[in-house]
Amino acid sequence: MSTLNDLPVVVIGAGPVGLAAAAHLHERDLPFLVLEAGDTPAAAVRQWGHVRVFSPWRYNIDPAARRLLDEAGWVAPDLEALPTGAELADDYLQPLAMVPQLKPHLRYGARVEAISRLGLDRLRTVGRDSTPFLIRLTDGQEVLARTVIDASGTWGTPNVLGSSGLPARGETAVAAHLEHALPDVLGVDRDRFAGRHTLVVGAGHSAANTLLSLAELAESAPGTEVTWAIRTSSPARTYGGGDADALPARGALGSRLRAHVDAGQIRLLTGFAVHALTPTDGRVNVVVRHADGGEEQTTVDRIVAATGFRPDHSIAAELRLDLDPVMGATRALAPLIDPNEHSCGTVPPHGVTELTHPESGYYAVGMKSYGRAPTFLMATGYEQVRSVVAALAGDWAAARDVQLDLPETGVCNSNPDESANADSCCGPAPAAHASGRGLATGISGGLLAAPVSLLVLDAAPADPQTGGLPQV
Ligand SMILES: Cc1cc2nc3c(=O)[nH]c(=O)nc-3n(C[C@H](O)[C@H](O)[C@H](O)COP(=O)(O)OP(=O)(O)OC[C@H]3O[C@@H](n4cnc5c(N)ncnc54)[C@H](O)[C@@H]3O)c2cc1C
Predict the structure, then answer these.
(1) Rounded distance, CA 234 to CA 102, Å?
(2) Which of 22, 168, 189, 427 has its CA 20 to 30 A from that of 466?
(3) Is 416 part of any domain?
(4) Average pLDDT over residues 61-83
(5) 295 pLDDT above the threshold of 80
(6) How far is the CA of 238 from the centre of ligand 1 (A)?
(7) 183 CB under 6 A from ligand 1?
(8) What is the pLDDT of residue 147?
């Protein structure tokens, strides 16, 4: 008679973390199947293929994946070099997906629509833990699994432009003028931006990357204008740690951006909350609401929404998840990564213990595991899947022995003058962290600790009986 353990561990997503999970499952001799929505491995990474990452190769290669690749005669890249997304896909993830130990276990064009337990809805408890997972694909096929490792990322679910977390008024009506994060401004998407006025909304690395590309485009394409809008009153957090950043490429990004803003090549708008968008003569009119209730308008050709990503937990709606109400990560992980709390802290290494939900056997890992926190790094995901897979193999000692070898932060405490300033990148310098305990979150982490001006009610306050709806 077949048992639950005869079924495969199903991994959702063949990105860096899903493929690392597959490599660890192979090493542990556990049957597995990877379901990838795209037609190739690293389908999401390829969409930002033109962007150069800020962590060098040595942090981007999973150790179990490396062992498989070495066996296949792979020539490793220069471990100190910074790959683009395309190089990450072509030189590492594609060859990894092709090794004979993994290739037969990968299915492409397999988008997971929903996950449940066979014959049990979310309400039923008896027999739940010994019942297989039922995974339904968008084409109607169904797969049974012993365990689900959900490494589906967040790339497919970007945040909206509206400052309340809901789409701004008219956001859908101007969809033709809206770009998701990281368009290939200097490559295939050039024509959409050359000679046009683009508004980039957001304060993270994606915004910084796009702004720098637009500034470069403006040098060769006359009429190209660039405006950058942020919620806070200062861009200091985006500029980050400069030379003090533990990942130099990340620091350099901020420094270059600052130079363009200072030189007037990028117009910076602070305290900018998108309220409404209206199509106007082939352009878009953007209405901004200020803290005092006043409004301001600007007209642009294109808007890049570099406002971050959020996890799509809807595929697991029939499972028993215990999600932190703020972050959309597990409750154990959320306080470690909450950007409201951590300005320049480090994320401690974590694994199966922090990733466990009440639904035994379902683990969200990788980018998705961080919910809305913007500070995820691949190396963190590799350690997550090493720990989860060790637990699945019953090796609890290895599962609990979580470690991370990542650069220590120098962003906060090596520039005390700036740190003491409330408008600076990081606020007061934190106590030193134990060596090797985690990763620097100096630029995007802690972003939300910067105060935004809270919007006040209009001069004429909403009617207490109707909350602003018209009287009937
Ligand atoms: C521009 C950019 C730069 C970054 N730079 C760095 C860096 O320098 N260093 C670093 O460590 N990290 C960096 N990151 C963060 C992070 O490490 C990457 O986003 C990484 O790709 C996350 O890996 P992942 O496997 O969790 O998710 P993804 O790479 O997003 O992979 C998820 C996969 O799941 C598939 N999928 C999605 N939904 C489904 C579904 N329903 N069914 C089946 N398959 C599905 C997708 O097609 C995709 O292939 C960067 C991220 C971005 C966007």
Answers:
(1) 47
(2) 168
(3) no
(4) 97
(5) yes
(6) 21
(7) no
(8) 98
Each residue's pLDDT tens digit, 28-51: 999 999 999 999 999 999 999 999
Does 45 map to a domain?
yes
142 and 23 both lie in a single domain? yes
C-alpha 183 – ligand 1 centre gap (Å): 16
Q: How many CA atoms lie within 13 A of 396 on its CB side?
A: 1
**Å from CA of 95 to ligand 1 middle:** 17
Q: State both tokens at 123.
A: 């309400």
Query: Would residue 425 count as lying in a domain?
Result: no
Vertex 289, ends 283 and 293: CA angle to 5°?
A: 145
pLDDT at residue 170, as a whole number: 95
Q: Is the CB of 148 under 6 A from ligand 1?
A: no
Residues 13-20 have a mean pLDDT of: 98
Q: Which atom of ligand 1 lies closest to the CA of 376?
A: 15
| Residue whose CA lies nearest to ligand 1 atom number 13 | 377
Residues 6+ apart with CB under 8 A from 248: none
Residue nearest atom 11 of ligand 1, based on CA coordinates: 377
Does residue 382 sit within a domain? yes
Domain count, the chain: 2
Task: Please give the number of the atom of ligand 1 that sits closest to the Cα of 42.
Answer: 49
Q: What tens digit of pLDDT does each residue of 93-124 get? A: 999 999 999 999 999 999 999 999 999 999 99
Nearest CA to ligand 1 atom 41: 112
Name the closest-CA residue to atom 27, ligand 1. 153
